Automatic annotation (TrEMBL), chains A, B:
This is Transcriptional regulator, TetR family. Keywords: DNA-binding. One of its GO terms (molecular function) is DNA-binding transcription factor activity. The keyword DNA-binding applies.
Amino acid sequence: MVYRVTEARLQRDRVLRERILDCALQQVAEAGFASLAMTSLARSAGVATGSLYRHFSGKDEIAREIFTRATDLEVSQLRQQLQAPGTAAERLHRGIRTFAARAWHSRQLAFALIAEPVPGEVDACRLHYREIYAELFSQLLEQGNRDGSLQVGNIPLTAACLVGATAEALVGPLSPQAIKSRAEGDSAADFEQVCSALLEFCLRAVAARLD
Amino acid sequence: MVYRVTEARLQRDRVLRERILDCALQQVAEAGFASLAMTSLARSAGVATGSLYRHFSGKDEIAREIFTRATDLEVSQLRQQLQAPGTAAERLHRGIRTFAARAWHSRQLAFALIAEPVPGEVDACRLHYREIYAELFSQLLEQGNRDGSLQVGNIPLTAACLVGATAEALVGPLSPQAIKSRAEGDSAADFEQVCSALLEFCLRAVAARLD
C-alpha cells in the first residue's frame, strides 16, 4: 500500500505553518528575536514542540523566515513610495518619512529587524536586504539626476549611505531603553523631531530641491 | 601545602593569551570571523586545544575580544583626527577620510568588523561601538555649530546618520566579492572614488563649509 500525502493534509500543514509564523512574529514584535523559544512558541501556537520541528529545523530558521517576511513588507512599502508620481526629491522625502513612520508604529519589531543582535544566519539576511534597499534608492537617485531634483555623483555609493543613515538614525530612538524612558504622550512629538532631522540629513546629502 | 600561582606563571599566561589573540586577529584579517576555529587556532598559536579553553570559553569569546581590540583602535584613530586642530568641518573631512583609508588598507578585517554576519554576542558589540562612534561625532557637530563650519539641528540623530552612512558606504566596496572582482592596480583609483563620494554625502548633509 502506497502512503499518499493528500491535498487536505498538505493544506493543513500550510495553515499550521502560517499559524506558527504568525505567533512567532507576534512574539518578536513584543519582545525581540531573543525572546523566541521553541517550547513557548509551541504553546502559543497550540501544537506539540515536536510538531514545530516537523516544520522548521529550529528557532534560527523561524527567525530568518520572520525577518524575511517582515522586511519584504517594508521593502514593498518603500518601493511604492519611491515609485509614486512626483519628482525624485519629493518621493525620497515621502519614502523616508513613510519608512520612519512605519518603524515608529511597530518599534519593537523595527528595532529587532534593524539592530537587535541576532544569530549569524539572520545577520546575513540583513546584509542581503540592505543591498535590496540600496538598489531601490539607486533607481530613485538616477531619476533625480535626470529630473534635476537631486544632484548625485556616485549613485551606488550614495544609495548605500542613504540606507545606512536611515537605519542608524532609527536605532537609538527605537531602542528598548529609549522607548522605556519616553513618556506615553511624547511619542508623536518625538517622531516629528526624529523624522525631520533624518530628512534634513538625507535631503541635504543628495542636494534635493523641493519646490 | 598551599599551591601558589607565581608571578612568573601569570606572566607566561598573559604572553600566551596575547599570542593566541594575535593569531586569531591574523586569521580574521585574512578570512573573516567565519574562519575562526579552535583547533586551527591552537595549531597556529602552537598550543594544545585544551590550553585555548583555559584562556577562553570558546571562539565566540575570542571573536568578541578581537572585535573589541580592533574597533578600539579605529575609535582612537578617529578620535585623534576629530580632535586635531582646525575647524570642525575640516576635522570631519579628515576623520572620515582617515577612517575610510584605514578600512581600505585592511579590507578583509574592516569588512569583518563592519558587516560580516557574526554571532549575536559579537553583533551586540557592534551596537555598542556604533554608540561610541556617534558620541565622537556628536562632540564634533557641537563644535561645528559653534565655530560656524557646520549647521546641524538635531545633533545626536545627525551623529547616528554619519555613523550609519560611513559604515554602510564601505560595506559594498570592501565586500569579498568587490575585492575579488577588482584588478590589483585599480585599488587606489577606486579608493579615491569611494572616499570622495562618501565625503560629498556627509559634508553636504551637515552643511559643511570648507574655506
